Amino acid sequence: MAQGIASGGLRPQPLNAPRLALGSAQFGLDYGVANRTGQVTRAALLEILSHAAQAGIDTLDTAIAYGDSEARLGEAGVARWQVVSKLPRLPADVGDDVPGWVRGQVQGALTRLRVPALAALLLHHPADLCGPHAAALSGALAALRDRALVRKTGVSIYDPAELDALWQHDAVQLVQGPLNVVDRRLQRSGWLDRLQARGIEVHVRSAFLQGLLLMPPGQRPARFERWQPLWERWDHWLQRHRLTPLQACLRYVLSLPGVDRVVVGVDSLVQLHEILAACDGALPVLPDDLASDDLALINPSHWQLP
Q1: With 0-12 CB in 10 A as exposed, 13-18 as middle and 19+ as buried, what is 143?
Q2: Residue pair 155/172 in contact by the 8 Å Cβ criterion
Q3: Where are the alpha helices (DSSP H) in 118-172?
Q4: Phi/psi-derived region of residue 209, left when phi > 0, alpha when psi is between -120 and 50, beta in every other case
Q5: Three-state SS for 112?
């Protein structure tokens, strides 16, 4: 078992810690509905990276669109990490230069991150693999793998239904998607099992629903009051089983064998220690009535809509 330095001396690290991936949206943006501190400071970033590595975490999740996240990670030094980044949507005026645009985007990411290659490159807009530039995009991704600039390519999805047209595509070797105690579509649809059976790596994000699932009852924003019955069931279930929201959220996604990595974002070293302490332990069966298919709740991109 890996060990790390902690106040008071050496202590064992959780068995599930290596299955965590460190999200970096907070490093480049004021990210998350529960964020009260803004971007992570440089000192805090260095502490987080150091202690995460000591705990056995080796994967970083970032994106070209995450503000200055890649540049800040590069300045901090991440050459020993497995870095996953994401390609933005193909621009409307890309024309016939898809390979050149892709190469330029990836070379820029590698320069900012100060790494020779990416562990994986995901498409932030998976539909580009089915659009008019699909063949050129597929060829560009294959060329990146052939040149060892990217080890794996894949897609970042928002809805498992996106996989219907994608999952047997040669470019899809890794899938990242949302999964949490409320949004269980990836599991309940059977897609998690299908991806595992095909040998496609799966990373899940939004384990805390951008922090919403961790918020005390009195602190949830007013726009989420319409789901009050669900929040009451969630709060009562946690109380009955003497679990914290953090423990329940992490243990659910980590209990699923088809999940290779769980992406977690942290704002401070304290949060990282709390996550490490919460990820191992028993989890009672989650009741079905805690799950929802309401996109207005489970898809954060809908939260700003009237």
Answers
A1: middle
A2: yes
A3: 134-146
A4: left
A5: helix
Give me the helix-helix angle, 269-278 and 42-54, nearest 10°: 30
Predicted TM-score of the model (pTM) = 0.90
Q: How far is CA 300 from CA 36, 208, 285, 295, 297, in A?
A: 17, 12, 26, 8, 7
Residue type, 51: H
What's the whole-number mean pLDDT along residues 205-212? 95
Residue 162 tokens read as 């996106």
Contacts of residue 251, defined as CB under 8 A and 6 or more positions apart, other chains included, come to 278, 279, 280, 281, 282, 283
Closest CA to 261 of 5, 58, 54: 58
- Taking residues 48-65, report their average pLDDT: 95
Tokens of 279: 């990820």
* Closest residue by Cα to residue 188 from 266, 286, 97: 286
Is it the case that residue 184 has pLDDT exceeding 60? yes
| Residue 198 vs residues 167, 170, 259: alpha-carbon distances, Å | 9, 12, 13
Query: Which residues are CB-neighbours of 209 under 8 A, at least 6 positions away?
Result: 180, 182, 183, 298, 300
